[in-house]
Task: inverse folding
């Protein structure tokens, strides 16, 4: 069982994480907007590196969005109840795991099962 103190610390971590993720996403959005502007980088080499940069940014953005979703879900569960309970098997998540990953929604066993069954997940 999680102590109130631990819960409060995790909530603070999640809120901090949320702010950080949003700021990071905004930065990448701005970078993507900038690189999509026509008339810039007319050299082939520049275009190639721009395409690469855009693909990389899109990947990072997707990962940030996924993390943000987990953070939001964890915060919601803190309010509505169910935080610290595995969404896969309904067992309590190891407090040490929650300390390291306050936004995780699966226990270690379910997490590795989920990763095995969806090899395309990042
Ligand atoms: Zn589980």
Result:
């Amino acid at each position: 069982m999680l102590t109130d103190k631990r819960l409060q610390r995790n909530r603070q971590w999640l809120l901090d994480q949320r702010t950080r993720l949003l700021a990071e996403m905004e930065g990448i959005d701005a970078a993507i907007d900038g690189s999509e502007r026509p008339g810039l980088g007319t050299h082939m080499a520049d275009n190639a590196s721009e395409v690469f940069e855009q693909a990389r940014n899109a990947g990072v953005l997707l990962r940030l969005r996924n993390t943000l979703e987990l953070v939001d879900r964890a915060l919601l569960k803190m309010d509505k109840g169910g935080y610290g309970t595995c969404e896969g098997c309904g067992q309590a998540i190891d407090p040490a795991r929650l300390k390291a990953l306050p936004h995780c929604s699966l226990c270690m066993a379910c997490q590795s099962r989920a990763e095995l069954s969806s090899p395309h997940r990042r």
Notes: The chain has a mean pLDDT of 87. The first helix runs from residue 4 to 36. The radius of gyration is 19 Å.
